[in-house]
Every structure is written in structure tokens, then in C-alpha cells.
Amino acid sequence: MKLRTRLLVGLLVLFIITSTFLLYLYWPLLTGEKIVLTTTPVDPFDILRGQYIQINYEITTLKKIENVEVGDSIFIILQPDEKGIDRNISVQQQKPTSSRFIKGTVSSVYGERMRIEYGIEQYFFERNAQLDLKNVTVEVKVSSSGRAAISQVLSNGEPITIKYQKVEITS
Amino acid sequence: MFSKKGVSFSSVVAIMGSILIAVGIAWLLADNWHVIPKFMKIIILLSLTAGAYVGGTFAKEKGYPTVGQALFVLGALLYTLSIFLIAQMFFTQGSWQGQAWLWLLAWVGVMAASYIFSSAASLVVGLTQIIVWVSIQFMAFQENTNLSVGILLFYFLSLGIIFYGLSLYHKLREHDFTRVYRWWTAFYFLAFVYALSFQLLLPNVWPEEAVSSTGALVFLFVLVGAALVALLVGIIPIVRDRSKDAKEVLWFIGIVIVLIALIGSTGYVGDALGFCQQKSCSDQKEKVSCESMSPGKCYWLDDYDSCRDMSECQTVKWAESQSICEQNPNCKWKEYNCILKKDCYNSFKNQESCENSGGEPQCKWEYNFCTEKQFCDAFSSKDACGEQSSCKWYKTNSYGGSSQGQYPVSLWLLWIIINVFFLALIIGFIFYGTWQKQTSLINLGIIFFALDIITRYIGFIIDLQGYLGLSFIFITGGILLLGGGWGIEHWRKKLIAEVK
To answer: Which pTM was predicted?
Structure first.
């Protein structure tokens, strides 16, 4: 194969992988139904991807259901309250046919409680950022399969504003 | 890169340049990330990646293969960076499993690009990424379960077999990557056994409390299956053609069998480091077993259905009432605190009063202090500790305060066997390099030989503390460095001259 043909094939392969990945990530945001979840955040750091808030949702820890094991998929059926925040009304292992729901994976079971992850537990930003983390809710879009993606983080019901400190490098 | 002449200095410098550029771009993007719109971020990342590959292709075309290789490495690193930054833009899971998926995706792309662009340097990036991916996947399995490190070692061993199978396959097809795979397999196995040669690792490979997880075992079966397929694909034509490589394959299978035996044998020294102590009352979950502990040690607290230590009043100090405090005959209620009636250390300041104090806890005079009597010999071996019903072995991950003589013979023996095997492997790879006329393999063997000497030398410094031991070690070290430096270089030059 000629060098330039190799170049075209190589770029095409990498483009296909990246585009498929992008489409997979973008799918819930393109097609999903909007829900709002309430949170309790903490503040760690990811060495590869920068700084983020680790978001614990109200629906992160729930009462254990029967026969559930770590790694099981689980569906949380939600209903918005008078403030527009989605609250858990029931939990089941079968995919619901027609209702507002989000899909999670059981990450641990302890006593009568179970911890569930939804793949939306991190919100990334840059270092030296200042955020108002009071009364944080998260607007999430959920695809028809139940897979969720964060569309925006809200503070007191408004999109969160991130201020960046100017850092000067001195020797 | 990986030509018959070995790796050139200029290619190493150019690749280091690529790594610096990739890191620089990562920092530049990270510093201005918030001012760039999401769509623009993706365009920038993809353009930079494509630019590196276009540059690499043109450099190769114009007769600058070294620069071309370096740019392909840059492309591989920028592609990996793109995957992680795109994931960041969409706030994907930061858990170990989330990271493992990203590494897998990065690895697939880099491996595909390495073959399409026929880039040996980019292939090394891909081969490194698969190790990172497997390690992170193991961490993901371990996130909620206490998995044995032994399983990770079998993952790595399977990977090594895959690398070797691929090196045979590429050799049969006379592919350009043959020498890369051969060098990588040698490097990989030497690094693997080097990691095993640390005494501290051995008791922690199969800890007793470790459990298995279905996901981790399924992943192991997949890797073992892939390793067998890779090995068979490489071996079958050799057996069919009765090739001279058959002897090499037999040696390799022998090495794998020895490694499986060594990893398995570490189970015999599992949890060998630790200390022996009286069983804790809280370990007893039943009233009968609680009260059968050594006389005066534990008591059953009905209010909480729990077994409590008679010498500990602190556990009831904060949250519980006077009535609960006084259920422990050794405790008394004083100024809203539950405290010990008798305290060996504070109550008795001379040997006579200490030894005649009576009651619980029992006291003994040691090192001019009155301390609580211990019923188990802290320095006894794990097996001897287990024979005493009231004692329990508490595992530690380090040598702690124990003296040298307390380490089990089995641990020393296994450590010596692994180190002898490591030395044999180094010498084996050096002779293999001479046979295959691949100088990079000889250099690799020599580097690991020097690394082994330095590592064991530092290990002995740590083990043989004290001025006499240290002065002996330093003098020996000096002679080794002076003589060894000259000897190793002389040896290396001689071997390379033989190859040429």
C-alpha cells in the first residue's frame, strides 16, 4: 500500500473510532428526556483529566431490593416534585415500558442499602476554578435505554457559574 | 527504530521531542479549556492528531524515517489525549471501569494506526497501553472486592504469552514488527520477573482474606484463551515444518511453566508477614465464644449483643451510660467518663507493686515499665500462632518491627529461587540475543543485570542495618560498582562484537 493511501486509511480508521465514541456520548443529549436530580457533592482530583466534583445523588444510595447483586443493572422510576426535581418513586430490575426512568449499576450492597452508579458522578472543570456548590442540582438527559448524560449543573436552579482564578507563574 | 543496528540515538531524541510536544499541547489545552467551545475543542484535538500523522507520512516519504517515527508517536499520544479529553467534555464516569474503557479505546486506535502506518515506535506505545488497560481493568474489578494480586499476575503472564505468540506469527510472515515483538517480549518477561523478585511482594500475592469475582475470572479466561490462540497460531507452522525454532518454543513453554509454579507457590507464603496477638473480643460474635476467651478477657454486653474487651473502657466512654459502663467489672464511672479501675502503666511505678497487682488486666514488669501482660508471643510464626486458640495472626504488609530471624524459611527459599530464576532468565536472553544477532536484546539483558545488582545491593543495605554491616556493604558496593562497571561494559562489547 502506498504511503498516502495508508495515510487516508489510517485517518479514516481513527476518525471512525472517534466519531463513534462521540456519537455514543452525545446520543442521550441528542435524544434524551430532561430530568433534574438533587445532589450532595464532594471535591476530588483526577490526575489524567483534571479537577472535578464527585456528585452523589439523592438516588445514589437507596433501599436494597430483593435478589440484587453488585454489578446488576437497575432502573429507577422518577417523578418530578412541585419544584421540578425528579424523585425516586420505585426501583426495579426490569426495564420499564413507559415511564420516566434512569438506568444505573449496583456498585455495592451493605445491610439494607445499595449504592448505585449512573455514569454521571463526575463534573469536570479546570484547576483554579471557583464554584458555588450550594444547593446543587444536575440537569441530566436520559436516552430511551435509560443511559444518562449530564447536560448542565445548576446552583439554586440556575446554570452554575465557574470563575477561574488568574494564576501567575513565578520562579 | 528496532533495525538490525538497534535503536538509533537520533530516534530516541526525536521520540522524546514528540512526548514533550504532546505534554505541552495537553497543558496548553488544559489551561485554556474553558474559553474554547466544545465543538472547537473536538476540531482542535482531531486536527492536531491528523496533523501529526500527515507530518509523519510526509517525513517518511521525503526520506526522514526517524522524524516520521517520532511524529507517528506524537499522533498516537495526541489520539490518546483526544479520547480522554472528549470523555472529560461529556463527563463520563471517572471510576476505574470508566477509565478502563477509555484506555481500551485508546489502545485499539493506536494499534490500528501502528499497523496501517507501519510504525514500530507507535507499536511500542500501543503495547504499553494494553498493559495499562489490563492493570486498570484489574483495579476496576477490585473496586468493590478484595481481589488477589495473584490474579493480576496471571493477567500479565497471559499478556506475555500473547506477545510471544505474536512475535512468532510476525516472524513466520517476515513482518517488519518481528524484532519489535521479540524485544518487547524479552523486556516484558524480564520486567515481570524483576517485579516478582521483591521479597515484600510475595506474601501479598494470595492474601487469605482475598475473594474471587466472576468478572475478574471471566476476564482471566478471555486473556488465557487469547494467549493460547496466539501461541498456537505461532507454534503450529513451526511444528509442521520442524523448524529450528522448535527448541526456542520449548524453552519458552518451560519458562511459562516455571512462572506459573512460582506464582502458585507464593500461596504458601501468603500473609507470612505479621504478628501474633490475642484474639480481639470484637471478633467473637456469639455469647458462648465470647465468654470462652481466656479468663477475664471478654464479657458479653446484652444491651448491644456484642463482645467487649474487659481492659477497654474507652469503647463505652462517649455514647453510653453509667449502667453500661459498670457492667464491665474493670471499669468505673468518673466525671461522665468510663475509665479503667486498674491501669498497669499509670498505677504501678515499681516492679514489686506491678507484679503483685492481681486482678484484670494482668500486669508485667518490662523495660522498667509496668505494662499489660500479652498472652501471645508477637514474634511467633503464623503457624505457631494459629495453634494457640486464644491468639490470632494479624497480617502486615511490611517487615515492621520484627527481627530478621522471624521470617519463615519458606519465604526466604521462594525469594532465593525467584532471584536465581531471574538471573538465569537474564543470561538466557543475553545468549538468545547473541544467537539471533539482535544487539538490542543483549543490551536489554545487561541493563537488567545491572538493575538486579543495584536493587539487591539496596535491599541488603535495608536488611543489614548497623554500622558494621553498612560499612561492609558500602565497601563491597564500591568494589562492585568499580569492577562491575568495567566488567559489564567489557562483557557487553565482547558479545556485540561477536554478533557483528
So the answer is: 0.76
